[in-house]
Amino acid sequence: MTAPGRRTNLALLAVFAVALATGAGSFATGASAGRWVIWAHGIAGLGVLALAPWKTQIARRGVARRRPSLLASLALAALVVIAVVAGLAHSTGALRSIGALTAMQVHVGAALVAVPLAVWHVIARPARPRPTDLSRRTLLRTGAFIGASTTAYVATEGLIRATGLPGGDRRFSGSFETGSFEPEAMPVTQWLNDAVPAIDADGWRLVVATTDGERSYGDGDFTRPDAAVRATLDCTGGWFAEQRWQGMWLSDLLGDADVGGSVLVRSLTGYRRRFPVSDAGRLLLASRVGGTPLSPGHGFPLRLVAPGRRGFWWVKWIDRIEFDDTPWWWQPPFPLA
Ligand SMILES: Nc1nc2c(c(=O)[nH]1)N[C@H]1C(S)=C(S)[C@@H](COP(=O)(O)O)O[C@H]1N2
Ligand SMILES: [Mo]
After folding, report:
1. Where does ligand 1 bind, in terms of residues with CB under 6 Å?
2. What is the pLDDT of residues 79-89, one digit of tens each?
3. Long-range contacts made by residues 255-259, C-beta under 8 angstroms, separation at least 24?
4. Ligand 1 atom closest to Cα of 317?
5. Which ligand is nearest to the CA of 313?
6. Cα–Cα distance, 180 to 177 (Å, whole number)
7. pLDDT grade, residue 126 (50/70/90)?
8. Which of 44, 139, 213, 333 is the most buried if burial means most Cβ atoms within 10 Å?
């Protein structure tokens, strides 16, 4: 075995890149066909752990040099440790919240703060790749490393189940079931800093804009739902709940209007998401859940139910819907508010 150094650093850099990409991918994944992204994220996380002993040796030599940037390097190390530990805390279910914060919030927060530090670290201490890095030997080592991390992942999952830790019951997305078929028991969640607005049913209007112009609806137009769907709300915060939702299909608002492109669903609070028009027949404008009107927290008077999509697509307190030619992907991949 050669002394740990350049190769460990390059491997760690690659694992970080994979962890970050699959972390974002896990948040984007709403259907079980994409469950491999979540597996890859867990494998990358354990890969970081696997490299830790080697990296610790490298870091010891670095610390001995007492560079002025030592503090920043140690902060980066601490953030990575926090992100991995919080990730394990969530996925095992051993510790789902720490004070006012959930383990998931700590996990994502630490990882996001670590990104700029990691970029600085790579620029300040570049690990230069060499042509021999593409050798058969490196390829075999990389394969062995991925194999070992995958084995560790499978073993960890097995251990979680064998020990009966709560993490064994999670959905493919990694979320814990909370309040299925009991809407009152389902958490009220905002993506970032949105707040539950006070909406008076009589004053509320929904404006629908198509190429044919604008039409306006009131609460009375949604009090007798003609459509229903059983769907699972799966929040990236780490919980999910299945409910029976009642309302009207988004496509029913279109009438005879001929629209391609996309549909923007906007909340009274400004929060918004855009969808392909071809999805409109599967998107429910829900006014009721479990047979009763929505509570203010869950989106009264109208919220979107987007089966197969993560919670952040399920816009609450809808006040405007626009059909136009904008491509649906013309929006930030995740909401900004
Ligand atoms: N207007 C608005 N709608 C929103 C959000 C928000 O912050 N603002 N958060 C989304 C997220 S992240 C989730 S998980 C669900 C939560 O729905 P619930 O509060 O009814 O459980 O609402 C979605 N709809
Ligand atoms: Mo969410």
Report:
1. 186-191, 194, 233, 235, 267, 269, 271, 297-299, 311-312, 314-317
2. 999 999 999 99
3. 255/210, 255/212, 256/212, 257/210, 257/211, 257/212, 257/323, 258/211, 259/210, 259/211, 259/323, 259/324, 259/325
4. 1
5. 1
6. 7
7. confident
8. 44
Question: Residue holding tokens 């139910």?
Answer: 305
Predicted TM-score (pTM) of this structure: 0.94
In the chain, the amino acid numbered 304 is L
| Helix, strand, or coil (residue 334) | coil
Judging by DSSP bridges, how do beta strands 262-267 and 318-324 pair with one another?
Answer: antiparallel
pLDDT in tens, 196-239: 999 999 999 999 999 889 999 999 999 999 999 999 999 999 99
Q: How far is the CA of 220 from the centre of ligand 1 (A)?
A: 23
With a cut of 70, say whether residue 3 has pLDDT above it: no
- CA-closest residue to ligand 1 atom 20: 298
DSSP state of 198: -
Q: Which two tokens stand for residue 321?
A: 């819907």
Structural domains in the chain, sorted by start: 3-174 (no CATH), 178-324 (3.90.420.10)
Query: Which residue's alpha carbon is at the smallest distance from atom 15 of ligand 1?
Result: 311
Both structure tokens of 161: 């189940």
